[in-house]
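Per-record layout

source: Sphingobacterium allocomposti
name: DUF4142 domain-containing protein
length: 199
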Amino acid sequence: MKLNTLIVAGICAGAFLVSCSPNTAKENQLKFTHTSLVDGDAFQFFKLVGAKVVYEKDYAAHVETIATSSEVRQLAAKVKEVYGELIPALDSLATQYQVDFPVKDSETFVAVQQDATNGAHVHEADSGSIQAAAGHGHAFSDASYVQHVQHESAIIKEQFQRLTRNTNRGLRDFAVANEEKVAELFKLAGGKEDAHAHH
């Protein structure tokens, strides 16, 4: 009888110690509580930049097919290239720091075409995605796309600049390595660097 009690107690203690390992706790932290290993600024970076680069890459791919100007097509190709390279790197970094990626409920690009028969807008997308029309309901023009790229790349560039001052060394190194790519997009779209921006 005492031997059976000792065996049952040993099994219970073993199961308890195995379930409390640090690795199991770390795996379950993101799974059940959705907490991450980054501070608020870095989380904001993943939320904002993670959503924008996916949308902008898809939008640029569409613009490459409809732009009338070769300069705008080249800008769209550069946007697609830069953001296309950032997406897997952001995904790896998000996984490392236990941040959900891609960002839930973020806009996805949906091309809007004019229906030739009745002028109605036709959306090309599956019904399960959140839809955002190109230009948010405005007619497309090369100039409006250049302005759009300038605006969006300025927002992304600011987030990268903020991340270069983060306390987490891995995030800081990532931001420093990629900040210039986004700044180049901003300049290609006609953006002007603020002379007093560097503190």
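summary: The chain has six helices and three strands. The longest helix spans residues 40-66.
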